[in-house]
């Protein structure tokens, strides 16, 4: 892949040199794009001034953001468009004229997200036009989490589970601490945990949705553990290909921490209703991490603890089923 000659390239990264970290380069990219890309600067200003609400469920304080700029993402079709001749906003040659990228090991392009949820909010997209797939990109996700540490975390949305452009593989990067789930990742393990071959499995007490936290300091062992967990999950999946899941990953204190949220369904029934009965929320990793993105005032105002609990229960694996998946994965690793 030879892309470094493109005028769209802001910088290249092939490992920290002379004290320049990936996060440093991307901060510089963010500020440069604010100065050179008017539309980006305007939308970032809107996000910085957006409205937030908080809803408490149990001991967890969830966030609700009103972000009309995310309308295209929330309402996007969930079926991948495999026709490469169609417009793909993540392909280098089809980026907006003003948009630039940091080339990451000649494999990924790190871009400022033009419809951000956070400030800053980056997207790491493959240089090649290949479909969204978690396991094929897992090694790179772990590497990105390491190189973006300690200030940023990574999240992944499955092709039927929150990804608005499922035909092009990508991760998203956000400032660590912005999601309520980050406090769980900071602990590195839940109250009850199993450690095998240097990998820690635990089922944290996320309110009303099940998730598994997998942590370790060896990326190879961690890769094997996560891969086998996803295979166990696939056995009880009702969709073809990759099972429904969302993932958040971070690295600090010499430990990778990955939380996987298995899903029962991609969107709640209320998303497909008409009129005032419709709730325009398409849950992805951000929502599973505890922040709900709303695109209209009605949903922003009316979301409460009861409706969020109902939504989580509709789309999430219950905790007892997560414990069964972890047990099956651990038994497989012991074989």
Secondary structure: elements and pairs:
Blueprint: E1 9-13, H1 22-36, H2 38-48, E2 52-57, E3 60-66, H3 71-74, E4 101-104, E5 108-112, E6 122-126, H4 134-148, E7 152-157, E8 170-175, H5 182-187, E9 193-196, E10 199-202, E11 212-216, H6 219-235, E12 245-252, E13 255-262, H7 285-288, E14 291-294, H8 297-302, H9 305-315, H10 319-334
Parallel strand pairs: 1-4, 3-14
Antiparallel strand pairs: 2-3, 4-5, 5-6, 6-8, 7-8, 7-12, 9-10, 10-11, 11-13, 12-13
Walk me through what this model shows.
- This protein is α+β, with helices and mostly antiparallel strands and 335 residues long.
- Helix content is 31%, strand content 23%.
- It is built from 10 helices and 14 strands.
- It has helices at 22-36, 38-48, 71-74, 134-148, 182-187, 219-235, 285-288, 297-302, 305-315, 319-334; strands spanning 9-13, 52-57, 60-66, 101-104, 108-112, 122-126, 152-157, 170-175, 193-196, 199-202, 212-216, 245-252, 255-262, 291-294.
- An 11-stranded mixed β-sheet has the order 1-4-5-6-8-7-12-13-11-10-9. It has a 3-stranded mixed β-sheet with strand order 2-3-14.
């Amino acid at each position: 892949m030879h892309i470094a000659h493109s005028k769209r390239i802001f910088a290249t990264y092939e490992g920290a040199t002379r004290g320049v970290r990936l996060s440093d380069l991307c901060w510089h990219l963010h500020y440069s794009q604010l100065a050179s890309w008017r539309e980006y600067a305007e939308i970032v200003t809107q996000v910085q001034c957006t409205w937030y609400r908080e809803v408490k469920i149990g001991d967890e304080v969830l966030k609700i953001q009103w972000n009309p700029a995310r309308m295209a993402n929330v309402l996007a079709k969930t079926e991948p468009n495999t026709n490469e001749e169609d417009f793909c906003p993540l392909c280098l040659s089809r980026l907006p004229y003003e948009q630039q990228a940091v080339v990451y090991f000649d494999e990924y392009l790190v871009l400022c997200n033009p419809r951000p949820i956070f400030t800053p909010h980056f997207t790491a997209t493959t240089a090649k036009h290949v479909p969204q797939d978690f396991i094929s990109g897992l090694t790179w996700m772990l590497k990105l989490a390491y190189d973006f540490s300690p200030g940023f975390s990574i999240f992944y949305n499955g092709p039927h589970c929150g990804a608005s452009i499922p035909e092009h593989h990508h991760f998203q990067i956000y400032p660590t601490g912005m999601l309520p789930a980050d406090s769980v990742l900071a602990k590195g393990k839940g109250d009850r945990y199993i450690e095998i071959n240097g990998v820690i499995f635990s089922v944290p007490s996320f309110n009303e949705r099940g998730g598994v936290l997998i942590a370790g300091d060896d990326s190879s062992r961690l890769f094997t553990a996560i891969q086998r967990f996803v295979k166990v999950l696939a056995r009880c999946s009702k969709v073809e290909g990759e099972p429904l899941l969302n993932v958040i990953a971070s690295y600090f204190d010499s430990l990778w921490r990955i939380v996987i949220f298995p899903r029962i369904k991609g969107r709640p029934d209320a998303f497909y209703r008409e009129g005032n009965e419709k709730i325009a929320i398409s849950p992805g990793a951000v929502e599973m991490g505890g922040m709900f993105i709303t695109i209209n005032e009605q949903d922003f105002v009316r979301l409460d603890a009861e409706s969020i609990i109902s939504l989580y229960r509709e789309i999430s694996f219950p905790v007892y089923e997560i414990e069964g998946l972890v047990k099956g994965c651990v038994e497989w690793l012991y074989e």
